[in-house]
Amino acid sequence: MTVILDSRTDFTLENYRTVAWGGAPVAISPAAREKMTKARAYLMALAERPEISIYGVNTGYGHHARYRLDAEARQKHAAQPTFHRAASWGDAVPERVARGIVFARLANFIEGHAACSPALADAVAAMLDGAPLPPVPARGQGGAGEIVSLSHLFLRLPERHAMAPKDMLSLVNGSPAASALVSDASLSARARLHLVAEVLALSAEAFNAPHGHFAAELQGYWNNPHDSEALSLLRTLMGPGHGGARRPYQAPVSIRILPRVLGEAFRATAMAEEIARQSLMAVTDNPVVIPEDEQTGPDPVISTGGYHNIQAVSAMDALVAAYTNLAVLAGRIAAKLQDNPVSQLPPFLGWADGRSYLGVLPMAMVGYEEEMRMLAQPTLLPGSESGGYAQDDVASPVFLAWSKVERAGMLLEQTLATLAPVAVRALDVTGRPVPEPLRAIADLVALHFPDTGENRPMGKDIADLATAFRERIHSAP
Hints:
single chain, mainly alpha, Fumarase C, Chain B, domain 1, Fumarase C, Chain A, domain 2, two-stranded parallel sheet, two-stranded antiparallel ribbon, elongated
């Protein structure tokens, strides 16, 4: 299905998923192309007016902005090579993220605010037709905005299309990368948290926890919509349980606080989704052209700081913190399930029947938790290269924040893949059935972590299960 782009209202999180994760192409509507053509002509007329300075169009870049360019110089300036801007290297962002950046880039084009050539907009849209995109390093992004990363992505366009004044700025300015990164993080979080809820519900059922810990009455008492979402989901996943007697007294703290810690993760996800929706529709270009019918001030073209999206950074930091807390709970529950005086379960560590000894799994989980703790530090505003080249005295930390949330998400999946086999075995040794809503997750555990009665190394099975979890997250509809 081709996504038709007519206005900024088409840059929704749902369309982002369809294009970035689903691989759908896009097409620019005739009405949008007409707006771009009109805005382009308006910009070119403004550039001729001696009293108006337009950064990078009739002036130079950076500290050369004080120099005025005539018509001939403007064209030479527009045709300057840009290879030097793609100065970073290292691990590339996934293809789904690169596609997301291209999609988000078009938001500033579609209503004429970038005033780029319509032909250039068509060329950018064509990058989403299915061909592999240039690799974009996730590291080495220390500029004030996203010029370094965007130069990697759009490096080849100037080789195939003649650049007119403002075109290059329209490609590499603004904050489409931030829009894409926070969108990717929010979509991943929503799918990941459903997986988290399944594994935690499976674990609570394995513990035979009292259903009162997840009672509907708590939704009104706690007075928090995100806690209510968590309580409702956990109850749905656990269902009526096995039908036998439940644990007669309260479970450990790690079980009882599940709804509130999961609720906080839902809150962080909702915040990331809100910022993603705002960012995808935002006009962040620099300079930005104000169409005549939208002008309320004296300046038809203004330089802005829209290329710096600190809200996206804060949202991703909140997700890392939520993931880390969930990993801590997973580790505590894995240990308490095997602490017989606390869990009231029979010994099932593997000594008696020759099966893999599960007592070491919480030890491994500590390593994942601690790495996540290191990631769960605030991503603050950094400086810039050499204290600031020309005007660029503060760098954008958005790629740093995304790298942390992406890594933390993978670590959380590994802790879940370590806890889930413990929960499945706890149910197995007590002869209790897996609740129907949790049957699929239990079957996935059994597929990748077959409890065959052999005492063998478990690392590869857990790694395979974590990979299966990740594939499920990123194939979520």
